[in-house]
Amino acid sequence: MKEIKVILTGATGMVGDGVLLECLENPSIKEILAVGRKSCGRKHPKLKEIIHADMYDVSAIADQLAGYDACFFCLGATSVGKTEEEYTKITYTLTLDFAKVLVSKNKDMTFCFISGAATDRTEKGKIMWARVKGRAENDLIKLPFKK
Asked: Is 33 helix (H, G, I), strand (E, B) or coil?
């Protein structure tokens, strides 16, 4: 089996931490690059980290994101207490901007967006978070990732 290198965002969150643990245990994953605003707090020979304060602008670290096979995009936040504009900035804008940088640096990458059950791919439903997640899914699919 081919060994792969993966990028992980959101490693300090509940889902991202679980994905990180699975990646560390998986023998087919030879390197994990955790990208986030703070350290995930783990040390492992397969784990590298980039601490980057502004996840909305990753141009300064873009070259360090090249040469990877997959990305687990686990970065996100709850919609509770947020306006649609605030939630869109976190869930849609940040995700798509990061994904565009990755696809420009890794033409054969698989991008895994940690979304949610009951997202609204029609983008017309009454539930705000579901519309925003659905829009993100729709636009991510349009990017030229391998998968």
From this structure: strand
Residue 35, beta-bridge partner list: 9, 50
Neighbours of 117 (CB within 10 A): 6
pTM of the model: 0.95
Closest of 7, 11, 50 to residue 31, by C-alpha:
7
For residue 33, give the nearest of 2, 57, 62, 53 by alpha carbon. 62
How many Å apart are CA 83 and CA 121, to the nearest integer? 20
Q: What is the pLDDT of residues 47-60, one digit of tens each?
A: 999 999 999 999 99
Are the C-beta atoms of 59 and 104 separated by less than 8 Å? no
72, with CB counted inside 10 A (0-12, 13-18, 19+), is buried
For 33-86, what is each residue's pLDDT tens digit? 999 999 999 999 999 999 999 999 999 999 999 999 999 999 999 999 999 999
The amino acid occupying position 50 is I
C-alpha distance from residue 67 to each of 7, 19, 84, 109 (Å): 10, 20, 35, 9
